[in-house]
From TrEMBL:
The keyword ATP-binding applies. Belongs to the protein kinase superfamily. CAMK Ser/Thr protein kinase family. CHEK2 subfamily. Residues 1-21, 370-391 are annotated as: Disordered. This is Kinase-like protein.
Length: 468
């Protein structure tokens, strides 16, 4: 998580946000999506969306990019964002800020944030409708030669009280995540779909489910429900519309500035609070990385949620022989356990090491051309995973990083760290080679870097995140 020496982040640029035209001609190259509407006079208008430049819709002309004069419209009715997604595409989302809510594809949405897919219709009740058009579209790879081209129209399936759509938010080796609707609570949710083939696989997945259903913390991605449908397990999760921390950091670097120190500290404070909650329950995550840290909604100083508990383990104080995770975030004891079947490691110190790598901006992965290279590193998963699944470049990179971790050959970018020694001191404590001497989450929360702003961090957390 690269940090800068500034106290505050640079203000956002608004130049291309809310660009309105009579048609889509002339939209600039940085436009990634548009909202198409017909106003009260029958004139077709386009509201353009650019990455990280939100558009506000409402009645107040001083505060809104697109103004609706209808009395039923709130001063600021909703805010529409476009943010980078982890797969290189764009997530378009709408945050309802109104009294009356919004309607998405005929379903009432209130006081939450939703994802707008291509051709979705967003309605301001008793006012105008907007059709969302994505200009940056990720075409899914065909599973076989006879898959339709172009893809079929979205389909829907009722699973329990939820409506699951064919819109895929993410795909992995063992599961896919789809957009779903929870009509009872007027919100969208994420549906993680896992196909199990054998009884022991179902038992293994249910371990993750039991862990998830028992967790309730502002910085943990919440599981609402689970449904079994034949061989398919459906886990209904809290939807996060801001993308993941990895994409957020990369997008900030592409705009020529890093996270400011204050924002990096606020994110790390939340991560440590979430980890403290888990470790108090004797649960370790074992695959902490920016890709598994989600942003609840777009915007600076975001609320973050730890997600993807597929490798999580209860009784985390016990040593395990099942080494897993992503190579560039693994501690030396887990790297050794990967290569020696008789060696084990403890999960909670491993989580702390991973947090140090995140804050330290990959101190063992120097020499790569950019931060984005770490996304190319394969997950080790378990010892049975075939390395041929990864590209040769990724395998070579993993080997180099493994050697550096085992040799404790780390490097800090002096241009970043020279003016924030307390932050570097925390990273160094989290990256102590001997896991028994390594900082715990409790020690990290007591570090000088956190304590120097603890009152401000706690007040900001309580006012923006904590329900209490």
């Amino acid at each position: 998580m690269p940090a800068a020496t500034h106290d505050r982040a640079p203000p956002p640029t608004w130049a291309s946000s809310g660009h309105r035209s009579a048609d889509c001609d002339g939209l600039s190259g940085d436009i990634c999506a548009k909202l198409v509407t017909t106003n009260k006079c029958g004139r077709r208008e386009v509201v353009a969306l650019s990455v990280n430049k939100p558009v506000t819709i409402g009645r107040n002309p001083a505060l809104c990019s697109y103004v609706l004069s209808d009395i039923v419209v709130s001063s600021i009715h909703c805010k529409v964002y476009a943010v980078p997604s982890g797969d290189g595409g764009v997530i378009v989302s709408c945050q309802d800020l109104s009294t009356n809510g919004v309607v998405l594809n005929g379903q009432k949405i209130r006081k939450t944030s939703v994802i707008l897919m291509d051709d979705d219709v967003l309605e301001i009740p008793s006012s105008q409708k907007f059709t969302c058009i994505h200009l940056v579209k990720q075409q899914p790879e065909k599973a076989n030669l006879f898959d339709p081209t172009p893809p079929q129209q979205p389909s829907y399936k009722q699973i329990g009280a939820y409506t699951v759509t064919s819109h895929c938010l993410g795909q992995g080796s063992f599961a896919s995540v789809h957009l779903a609707l929870d009509p009872t609570n007027h919100r969208q949710v994420a549906c993680k779909i896992i196909k199990t083939k054998k009884e022991h696989e179902l038992r293994s997945v249910m371990k993750e489910v039991r862990i998830l259903l028992a967790l309730n913390h502002p910085n943990i991605n919440r599981a609402y429900n689970v449904e079994v449908n034949g061989k398919f397990l459906h886990i209904f999760l809290q939807l996060c519309t801001g993308g993941d921390l990895f994409a957020y950091i990369v997008s900030r670097k592409e705009t020529e500035h890093r996270l400011c120190e204050g924002e990096a500290k606020y994110i790390m404070y939340q991560l440590l609070r979430g980890l403290t909650y888990l470790h108090n329950k004797m649960i370790c995550h074992r695959d902490l990385k920016p890709e598994n840290i989600l942003l609840q909604m777009p915007g600076s100083y975001p609320r973050i949620l730890i997600a993807d508990f597929g490798l999580a383990r209860p009784k985390a104080y016990q040593e395990t022989l099942n080494a897993c995770g992503t190579v560039c975030y693994l501690p030396p004891e887990a790297i050794l356990a990967l290569e020696h079947k008789d060696r084990g490691y403890v999960g909670m110190p491993s989580d702390c090491w991973s947090a140090g790598v995140i804050l330290g901006s990959h101190p063992f992965d120097y020499g790569s051309h950019d931060y984005n290279s770490s996304r190319q590193h394969g997950d080790e998963g378990s010892r049975s995973l075939n390395p041929s699944q990864f590209s040769q470049a990724s395998v070579d990179r993993n080997r180099i990083v493994k050697e550096r971790i085992l040799n404790y050959d780390l490097e800090y970018d002096k241009s970043i760290w020279k003016s924030i020694p307390d932050a570097q001191a925390l990273v160094s404590r989290l990256l102590i080679y001997d896991y028994q001497q390594r900082a715990t989450v409790y020690g990290a929360m007591r570090s000088s870097w956190i304590r120097s702003d603890l009152e401000h961090l706690d007040n900001a957390y309580r006012s923006r995140i904590s329900p209490s």
